[in-house]
Amino acid sequence: MLRASRALLGVIAQSVVEALESVTLPQFRVLVVLASSGSVPIGVLAGKLNSVPSTFSRFLDRMEDAGLVVRRPSPGSRREVLVALEPKGAAIVEEATKRRRRAIAEILQRLDAQERDRLVCALDSFSLAAGEPAPETLLIMGL
């Protein structure tokens, strides 16, 4: 299992290498959260990333200047500001996801159909036994 987890971690790491040439890991984490949850209030986003809202706001300034995210007033509350992905930020996450899927597909193609079927069953069983990881856990790696 440890060897398989290292192999998967290698696939994950390779899938984000290109992204980390244009953004930092903390920025990539923000992009991943926004890609999966849509527009989020600044305070909620900072909380998901275990960041202090005042420091986080300056961090978002740099991301906004880079064209990765945009801040907009919330339609539901004039005091609340939402953070949303810009197309450039969405493209970074989409490309990393495509690379990950492509790498996994290439690995699976090396197995015959029977091996793939057994692997899918085994991984489904493992996933059910492990339970769904907390989003905060996945954010550590920008997943």
UniProtKB/TrEMBL annotation:
Residues 1-128 form the HTH marR-type domain. Gene3D superfamilies: Winged helix-like DNA-binding domain superfamily/Winged helix DNA-binding domain. PANTHER family: TRANSCRIPTIONAL REGULATOR, MARR FAMILY, TRANSCRIPTIONAL REGULATORY PROTEIN-RELATED. SMART domains: HTH_MARR. PROSITE patterns: HTH_MARR_2. It comes from the Bacteria. Pfam families: MarR. This is MarR family transcriptional regulator. InterPro entries: HTH_MarR-typ (IPR000835), MarR/SlyA-like (IPR039422), WH-like_DNA-bd_sf (IPR036388), WH_DNA-bd_sf (IPR036390).
